[in-house]
Specification:
With about 180 residues, the protein is an all-alpha fold. Helices cover about 70% and strands about 0% of the residues.
Length: about 180
Amino acid sequence: MPDAAPQRSDALKNREVILKVAHDALTESPDASLNSIAKRAGIGPGTLYRHFPTREALILAVYQHDVDRLIRSVPEILATRAPLDALRHWFTTLTTYVRVKHGLGDALHSDAAQKAIGETHAPVAAAIGRLLVACERAGEVRPGLDPDDVLLLLSCLWRTPDTPDGAARAGRLLELAIDGFRP
């Protein structure tokens, strides 16, 4: 939870380092301990706990940070990839971020988790809308696809196991959905 007072630049830098290191550590192992994350970040456990007093708070912050970064990446992705490839890339990356969130297990039902998930829905749907408009203009998807429908449909991607076989299945499911989006 952010403090009311502005954070010092070193505190902001520590927070960013913690989020990056935690993202990497949780991607490698959903069971990574907070102490191991602090050590990898080159900070003391007290510094980590000042920013994120619980494991849940850290995982939710990593998820929100990653999703915010992904939402902001839409213009760059569209500038460097064909629209349909941008959509594929974007959803594949979102799937990775959501899998980090799944490390929360039962904590996903907490008020804090539900609030964080709810806060990302509208911006994620808006980003999907931008990608769909670009795909529609390129003639790669049919007009009028609803971003919320696409998000719900493609939520199956992060329900696949986080294994090589699961990644292959997610790729096949993404292509099946895209085939359904075509004009």
